[in-house]
Design goal:
The protein has 182 residues and is an all-alpha fold. It has one domain (1-180). The chain is 91% helix and 0% strand. It has helices at residues 2-16, 28-31, 33-161, 164-181. The longest helix is centred in the middle third of the chain and has 129 residues, at 33-161. Its main location: membrane. This is ATP synthase CF0 subunit I. Keywords: ATP synthesis, CF(0), Coiled coil, Hydrogen ion transport, Ion transport, Membrane, Plastid, Transmembrane, Transmembrane helix, Transport. The chain crosses the membrane at residues 33-51.
């Protein structure tokens, strides 16, 4: 504060001594302070309406832009909430579908395994039946061959051992037996 007072004192002293230096002129009429003040007041009054209307227009535009932005923000928030709800529902549906698919896969696997066991049992029974049939056929063929060989052997033995006299005796005996039966 002391510096300010010293500065004012210095400026007023230099004016009083009429030294042409820079200083503070206390005579308002000579310094045109009134003219400058009137000029500034006139400019403020004239420009106030012009600048005021321009600033009011800009303010209205900014307020309108802010309101529209807030409205879009609310709409976006609503859409976001709806999208989140749909996402949650979709996730629930996906989870349910996944669970259903797992259960279905388990049932199908069990059905396939069960059917496979049945098929194996059927094949086993069919194989056993085939083997049994093959054994029966082989037994029949062996019996036929044994019978054929036995007949052939007996025939050979009879041809070699039975003489025509013995054949006629056997025929006569058989004829006699037939007579008695009748």
């Amino acid at each position: 504060m002391d510096n300010f007072i010293s500065l004012l004192y210095f400026l007023t002293k230099s004016y009083e001594t009429e030294i042409k230096t820079f200083g503070f002129n206390t005579n308002f009429l000579e310094a045109n302070v009134i003219n400058i003040t009137l000029l500034l007041l006139g400019l403020i009054y004239i420009l106030k309406n012009f600048l005021g209307s321009t600033l009011i227009g800009r303010q209205q535009k900014v307020l309108t832009a802010i309101q529209e932005s807030e409205k879009r923000l609310q709409e976006a928030s609503i859409r976001l909430e709806e999208a989140e709800k749909q996402l949650a529902q979709t996730q629930m549906i996906v989870t349910q579908i996944t669970d259903d698919a797992k259960q279905t896969a388990k049932k199908v696997r069990e059905a396939i395994l069960g059917q496979g066991k049945l098929d194996i049992e059927k094949l086993t029974v069919a194989g056993k039946n085939s083997i049994a049939n093959a054994e029966q056929q082989i037994k029949k063929q062996i019996q036929k061959q044994i019978t054929a060989l036995a007949i052939q052997r007996v025939t050979l033995q009879l041809k070699t051992k039975i003489k025509p006299e013995m054949q006629s005796r056997i025929i006569d005996t058989n004829i006699m037996q037939l007579k008695y039966k009748l």
